[in-house]
Amino acid sequence: MEIFSEHTTDFQTGVIIPVNKPVNWTSFDVVNKIRYLLKYKREIPKIKVGHAGTLDPKASGVLIVCTGKATKQIQSLQGQQKTYYAGLKFGETTPSFDSETMVDATYPMEHITREKIEQIIPSFVGNISQIPPAYSALHVNGKRAYELARNGQIPELKARNVVIEKISIERFESPYLELSITCHTGTYVRSLVRDIGQALESGAWMSSLVRESSGDFQLKNAFTMEALIKMI
Prior knowledge:
Helix content: 10-25%
CATH superfamily of the largest domain: Pseudouridine synthase
CATH architecture of the largest domain: 2-Layer Sandwich
Number of helices: 6
Radius of gyration: 19 Å
CATH topology of the largest domain: Pseudouridine synthase
CATH class of the largest domain: Alpha Beta
Distance between the termini: 18 Å
Oligomer: single chain
Shape: elongated
Strand content: 25-35%
């Protein structure tokens, strides 16, 4: 399959586009924008466009978009290992586990030290059980979980097994912690942040998230939406 470049012309045969998704864009926003550009700027009236691995609206970073016959590769691309750079804030929680919703509770956090963080982090590496966020794109009775949550119907989601390969502490300056995370598909970093807060007998929510890689695709080689719009 062809990787998108300024020389790309055959989007129907199949093109893979690594995008640097902006904050406050949904993954579907990116797909819809590219589909619109191909339809009206490249005059391709009917073309399949999809993405390999949802990124939350408040997250940025590598989102792999496929066009045409490359959409058949979405499942295999989605299953590849990913790396993230995550920021979290201790002492508070939000219903969405990130900044999409307001703080709903506060907790003591003065007792949290780097040493205590280092002690609990290994328990989150390997095969672990994790409950996805209520504000997620998972389907519940035919609807997205976040649609129910935003309407005040908090869905009950079952725990599932995920694999986290590595977690590195990059910076700690209370109440903020920054982590580098390598994990497999299906991992919710927001849930990891919540669970770290609980393990430290406090609360925590995700203040920032950047997907730095997805498989072989690196953030430094991903196209900004501004560049894509000009090139297409």
